[in-house]
């Protein structure tokens, strides 16, 4: 396929572009998408109430709010992809056509051609058994926009357009051969292959690392600018919203509580919910002064590698180094952060400290005693370290009652408490994390994500461990809940003088909850120091790039204290 | 892909070696001396000893094992004690019935199960789905020999479209195929019922995947998304079941072979066991193991063809 042939087929649509662009340059031009008093119920349950919103060509409008606020349902309503049992009232007009009244056949013709959509989870959004070029070309072919060969060429061109040039990432690749960021680029290429007028991005960067997130956001901005698309951007992250959007709509329980131009909305924040979200996003727990008291955990030149894929039948694979010569110490009473992007070895290190895996070199000792001995975790050491994981939904056995769940670490003790003593310990643990002793009788499904994370903390603290590892413990939580959990950790620190290692990819969280921070990259610690010092004056280029890539919140209204995040780094 | 295939082939060879050893040992420790069994309880000890020598039963165990294996590799499966005929020849005759029957049944079951499973998955919870699921429930529950008898009653005795049993040989391929039709249907239906259920549930799982939603966002209709993105992904569990079913059909057709008087492998091994014809039992079991392992190998290759994640290097 020659380029001229491609442009021949493209010409038709390209030709429309100037008029399209001139549309939006007129101020107050007629909106591309107009949501007019949209209400939605699913099996009679109200999901969206009286939603009104417009998006003009070339405009980025962000829908923000916490999980369950109806952001994603709004997007699916615009795509006509609502689940079964959904009933809508009101109108959803694209270029004047009410999408709610269209037949499924007409909607199929609009999806992918007039409206493109990008999803949150790039790891699962692609068909694992189809080549990426074919998946992009399918968008074109299903709309019969071009013959097969032209569609192939266009697909390759689109992949190059989103930063996957054929010499580096050929269209013949399968999704599993790509990284998360690359897969998200493929999803974007699919969504924009026919240059739709409206692009809907549902949490497009939530599953990505900060540096990748910055690249994807740049790409989206560029596409909107150059192609004149309207972008409906759905995200819970106010910092991302403030950097991306022209206008913002804040959603809470199915309603838009406040909307307006980004700068003005952040300056005014008329609705209390908006203020709460904003406050929670920049929340810093009030961590008591640390009183370090002698070394507790010592990690000495630890190396952990995994066997790679075999090179041949009798040739073992080259080892993949997950942790490479890492050394650090944590003193009793100290709160240490560990930051880095996915795959940098954070979690492997955490597993090694917990004694769940052997290390190939170096030593991990707690008070001088190795955590892993004779091919298994040392029980006497193991009971002094506990962990809180990220997923508040998957890390509990759903068939056990809460009391039994949080009493689990007792099996590490030689003489676990029994009877009333045990019940008292459970009640105490629940009260400590802000729950009630009665909650011990309930099953885990009765609790919200935040409550579950409280239960996870109760479980970790019930045997009074000397070291707690928080492995992305607040990453899956909504901002307001996250703020509460961070406060809880600060409170517990005050009460019990906790020593912990707080692992997170989120720099702003780590900043508020730790005294010292370690920055990890490709299995090595590239920078370590006092949290404030590292954040204010990063020494290593990688730390600098992480800080620069992290989106930041605007200053709070009323000339209050400046955003805590490094302003120079932007 | 080639490296993957070679690796699978290596595993295949090792499996065969281990299987041959296990079969030999199991048959070896099984009670009952073939020589005395063949000659009856009144046989004189020296006659028995002579027969044992003739059969090679007096040799040390490892020599017999090596002789057995090296014979098999050269296509010599030994001589049956009871029939006094080369086992290879007996097996070859039976395979001519059993292998086409298994393939025929598998083909029928796939042809029934795929459309039924896909149809039901596409209409989950609707009357079409309920009907297909009800039918497969029945198919799983009804024993195939009973079903075989119903087929004979209807198509052989009443309608006289097919003969009630026996096998005329492959001189006239059409007649041969005709004779295998009723048995193949009787074998295929229960298998089809299982396969359809697997296909349906695999496809329903796949239809909940994110990439199906992505496909719909591209503008594919539900049906297009199902066919283009659902079916191939659902094939992986289905292939597993097909592989298992083929192995079963090859050897597990004993009852159906009895009902239709077919001279198949199942009957051969049944007779050999009752007559303690160790050489035949060993050889046929080894042959079946070989078939199962080869089918597994082919299934593994099919996986790789369907799922690119399994071929590490292309």
Topology record:
The complex is a heterodimer of chains A (570) and B (314).
Chain A lengths: L2 H23 L7 E10 L2 E11 L4 E5 L6 H9 L6 E9 L2 E2 L5 H7 L4 E4 L13 H11 L5 H14 L18 H13 L5 E5 L7 H18 L2 E5 L3 H7 L2 E6 L2 E7 H7 L3 H10 L13 E12 L13 E12 L3 E5 L6 H8 L7 E6 L2 E2 L1 E2 L2 E2 L1 H4 L2 E4 L13 H5 L12 H14 L16 H13 L5 E5 L7 H18 L3 E5 L2 H7 L2 E6 L2 E7 H6 L4 H9 L21
Parallel strand pairs in A: 3-8, 3-9, 6-7, 7-8, 13-20, 13-21, 18-19, 19-20
Antiparallel strand pairs in A: 1-2, 1-4, 4-5, 9-10, 11-12, 11-14, 14-15, 16-17, 21-22
Helix pairs in contact in A: 1-5, 4-5, 4-6, 5-6, 7-19, 10-16, 14-15, 15-16
Chain B lengths: L1 H28 L4 H6 L5 H11 L5 H13 L13 H36 L4 H15 L2 H15 L14 H35 L2 H8 L4 H30 L2 H6 L5 H10 L3 H29 L8
Helix pairs in contact in B: 1-13, 5-6, 5-8, 5-10, 6-8, 7-8, 8-10, 9-10, 10-13, 12-13
Summary keywords:
A: about 575 residues; alpha/beta; Rossmann fold; 3 domains; six-stranded mixed sheet; about 35% helix; disordered N terminus; B: about 325 residues; mainly alpha; MetI-like fold; globular
